[in-house]
Amino acid sequence: MFSVFIQSAFAAASAAAPSVSIPSISLQADLISMITGAGPVVKMVMLILLLFSVISWAIIFLKVYILRKARKETDVIMSQFWENRNLNKLLQLCRSLKYSPIAHMFISGYTEITRIKRIQSESETEEDIYSSAAKQSLMDNLDRAMKRIAIDQHRRLEKTIGFLATTGNTTPFIGLFGTVWGIMESFRGIGLKGSASLAVVAPGISEALVATAAGLAAAIPAVIAFNFLSGRLESFQSDMDIFTAEFLSLMERQMFKEHISSKNS
Q1: What secondary structure letter does DSSP report for 84?
Q2: Tens digit of pLDDT for each residue in 162-184?
Q3: Comparing C-alpha atoms, which of 28, 18, 87 is closest to residue 254?
């Protein structure tokens, strides 16, 4: 009796061994067959999710590259700004850098203060230019210009990042819609065949669940990248706020020095 049990156990083990290895080897083929065997609505859902995923990954790679370049250029500009207050040299440096928001802010701020000084010099005397009211007017105009430039640069950097948030919020529900529709089609097939066995139900439901998995696969990287890039944007916003305050302070000190030199001359 015991020998019969051992023989049957070995026979069962040898019969079960191939069935364990086959699914692990053909899992990828099974996924492809489930997608190709799905209904037209589920296929359309899968196509939409693929489109979302491709666009999201393109945005991720592009934004990571741009923000990395912008960070390197910003570090160079800030170090030069603290070490060397020669505005002409900083202007030439900023014109050679196209990714850093600080470079764009410096160019626009320098151009704005040059324009304001030229307008004041044409309409006012030298004494009026260095008066308290004229200096306050110049600083107010420059402050507004710098804030406007900072907003424009922030919009430029965060452009298309909102699509990642849209992907993270909508693709799970799009995938869920495909799953629900696929399950509805499976139950409809059960009604037509008049059979509720596992062999009849399982293929349709497994094909439908692939849509949910695809939705999550598109959403998870998009959410992670959105949070990561949002943190980088906050860092750039802090840099722009600090640079705005320091640039305004530098311009005010420079005007004071010009006023003192004009008095001495």
Answers
A1: -
A2: 999 999 999 999 998 888 887 87
A3: 87
